[in-house]
Amino acid sequence: MNDISDPLFISRAVQIPFTEIDMSAIRAQGAGGQNVNKVSSAIHLRFDVRASSLPDFYKERLLALKDQRLTRDGVIVIKAQQFRTQEQNREDALQRLQQLIQSVTKVQAKRIATKPSRSAKRKRMDKKTRRGNIKSMRGKVKDF
Hints:
Largest sheet: 3 strands, antiparallel
Order of helices and strands: EEEEHEHH
Helix content: 25-40%
Number of helices: 3
Strand content: 15-25%
Radius of gyration: 28 Å
CATH architecture of the domain at 8-103: 2-Layer Sandwich
C-alpha cells in the first residue's frame, strides 16, 4: 500500500508526488446490496497533466493520447470501483494511472513493408490450382 508521503513511481527517474493527484471517495454504482448505498468505497482519481511535474516528453505524449479518460483540459480521470474496500480501489486507481503514464514511454517500432518471395507466390498459386482441380472433380459426371 502506498503511503501519502511516498511518490508514485513511474520509472527510476520519474515520480509523481501525491500532492499532484486528487482522489475523492464516492459511492459505487451498480448492484451491491444494502452496503452500496451507505458506504463511499469507489475512488475518483483526477490528475492534471499540464500542471504536473512530469517531464515535457511525458506530457506531450499523454496529451496526444486518444483516450476517453483524458479530458479536453488535460486532466486524467480514473474511476475505480472494482473492489469492496476504499483502500483496494485507491490502489487500483493509482496502479491504473501508473500503467497509463508508463504506456506512453513505449515507442512503437517502425513497420517495414515486406513482399512474399517468388517461391512463396509460386507455391500459393500451385496450391490454389490443385484445390481448384479437386473441386472441379466434384461435379456431375457427363455422359458422352
